[in-house]
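Give me the fold.
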Amino acid sequence: MQMTGSNQPGAVPHEARPWSQQQLEQADSIVRRLQQRIAKATQQRRCCKVRAMQHLLTRSRSAKTLAVERVVTHLGKNTSGVDGVIWKSPKQLLAAVQSLRARGYRPKPLRRLEDTGRNALAARPNRGRVGEA
C-alpha cells in the first residue's frame, strides 16, 4: 500500500520554516561576502562602488531572508513589533520577506524633544523589528 502526503504517520512539525538550513547558510555567505566587498571598497575610498553594493545588499533576497529569520529566532519572537504583527506560519514569513521594500516606505515625522541634559536622546522613526535587524 502506498502512502500519500496526508496519510503519513508521525507528528506534524511544530514550526516549519519556508527555507532550509542550507539555504540560510548560503544566504549568509552571500551577505557576508557582499559586506566584505563594501568594507574593502570603503577603505579604498571608492564611494560609487560602495553605494552600488549597498544598493545591492539592501535589495537582495538573501539579506531580507536573514533579517526575517533573525527576528523570528531571537528571544523576543513572540513579541509584536511596532506594526503589532507576529509572524508564525511559513506563509507569513515568506510574505514578510517579499514585503520588505524601500519603495512605499514613509517614515513618520520625528518627535521634537527638548534637550534637557547632556545625555538626552532624540526619538527617531522606526521601521519595526526587521528594519533594525
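The chain has five helices and no strands.
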